[in-house]
Amino acid sequence: MASYKHASKRNAQSLTISSNNTPIKSAKxxxxxxxxxxxxxxxxxxxxxxxxxxxxxxxxxLKVMARKLDKLxxxxxxxxxxxxxxxxxxxxxxYAYAEIDDLKHQQELSKICDEETKKRIKNLENENTAxxxxxxxxxxxxxxxxxxxxxxxxxxxxxxxxxxxSLLEEKFEVRDAANMIKIDRSHxxxxxxxxxxxxxxIVVKFNYFQDREYIRKNARKLKGTRIGVSQQFxxxxxxxxxxxxxEYKKAKTEKERARxxxxxxxxxxxxxxxx
Length: 275
Hints:
This protein is α+β, with helices and mostly antiparallel strands. Helix content is 67%, strand content 11%.
């Protein structure tokens, strides 16, 4: 009986506790539900604001990306334009290089032609000089038998051959000069000038070279007169002799052996060169 009472007592206690606990739990749960409702609205609003903020950020990001894409399109267009320009420049450079190559080739050909032309001109100049010298030699040879007499009085209608023969008899002591010294021809050189002017020279061509040399070597017999005698040379040689004459005179003054042979001055056995 005792154990039954104890058991009933425990059951009663358990029921009491259970009954006490049951209403308290229900009130608490109900109270919590009532307190959570405003918080949920706040959280939802907060969440919505965050979502809106994120959407705005995404929207701004998309705008930025769109602007950048627009810029990329512009850059792409500029790049394409630059590529086209580069292509055009490349073609222009290739054309310019081709033109330069052609010009170089033409210049080389022109240089070769110039060198050949210079060689030809040089050869022609050498040939012309040689021809000129040959003509001068021929002229000198044709004048080999000639002498030129200076400062012989000039008269109207004169016979220059008779004048020379008379001079040979008087000054060179040649008897019967007209028969002993044969003269091929003679005449005055240059145009006739006014009266009282210096008489023109007389050029005389002798038939024999020996006669010419006899008169030339005995020209000292004319010393004390105004008359002079010299060999006749072409104009080209005369210019050279005229330039050499001061040196010839200087050498003679210094008692040096000097002589002029055509267009050369020889002093002490050495050919003098004009510098």
